[in-house]
Amino acid sequence: MTGHTLGRADFDVIAGWVEPGHRVLDLGCGDGSLLKRLIETRGIQGWGIEIEDANVLAAIGNGVNVIQSNLENGLADFAEGAFDHVVLSRTLQTVRHTEGILREMLRVGREAVVSFPNFAYWKNLRAVLDGRMPVSEDLPYQWYDSPNVRFFTLLDFEALCAQMGLAIRERRVLDEKGNPVEAGDDRELNFLGSLAVYRLTRAR
């Protein structure tokens, strides 16, 4: 899974959605940077899941409760409704069972928070038109060493949410520098946004 790094703009968005004292599960938590920040600034109760040895050790070093596990195996160890927020940050594109992990997130959490790179971002489209797979701030890998197994857009993700009966409570779209993108309509937003952050619940 992809690891978290410091200074990420999606972390700012996610932190703004978390209330003090909430219970947060971070899937593919990397070195625990997000949870460490939320513990220090929001006083949350946090747990992380991570598969890579070095990241697990780094998360422990950051004072984060972390379980070493593969997300592809699901979240069966967690009870229904155990968390206020379940976070999947820049990792959905690396998961093979997309619908399964989204369902599990909203089984164990009241709310799912998902961020992912938008393949329809204009720089990515330009790279493909120039005959190359895109490499950018939010898609930093070469085609031959990428952990990504899915390439999708904002509109693709929203269509999946509608198909699965998931309610989008909030959406933030950012450019490569982490600035919010303002656009007239969804197609324009899909073209101008490099990274998307969504707040999901089960439809009532």
Account of the 3D structure:
The protein is an alpha/beta fold. It has a single domain (about 10-200), classed as Vaccinia Virus protein VP39 (Rossmann fold, 3-Layer(aba) Sandwich). About 30% of the residues lie in helices and about 25% in strands. It is built from 7 helices and 7 strands. Strands 3-2-1-4-5-7-6 form a 7-stranded mixed beta sheet, sandwiched between helices. Strand 1 (about 25), helix 2 and strand 2 (about 45-50) form a beta-alpha-beta unit. The longest helix is centred in the middle third of the chain and has 11 residues, at about 100-110. It is globular, with a radius of gyration of 16 Å. About 40% of the residues are buried.
Question: So what's the CATH class?
Answer: Alpha Beta
**Helix count?**
7
Q: Report the count of strand segments.
A: 7
Q: Report mean pLDDT, rounded to a whole number.
A: 90
- Give the termini separation: 31 Å
Q: Which regions are unreliable across 5 or more consecutive residues at pLDDT < 50?
A: 1-6
Tell me the CATH superfamily: Vaccinia Virus protein VP39
Shape: globular
Which CATH architecture? Answer: 3-Layer(aba) Sandwich
Major beta-sheet overview: 7 strands, mixed
Task: Tell me the Rg in angstroms.
Answer: 16 Å
Share in β-strands: 15-25%
Structural class: alpha/beta
Q: H/E series, N to C? A: HEHEHEEHEHHEHE
Total domain count: 1
Strand sequence of the main sheet, in spatial order?
Answer: 3-2-1-4-5-7-6
Helix content: 25-40%
CATH topology: Rossmann fold
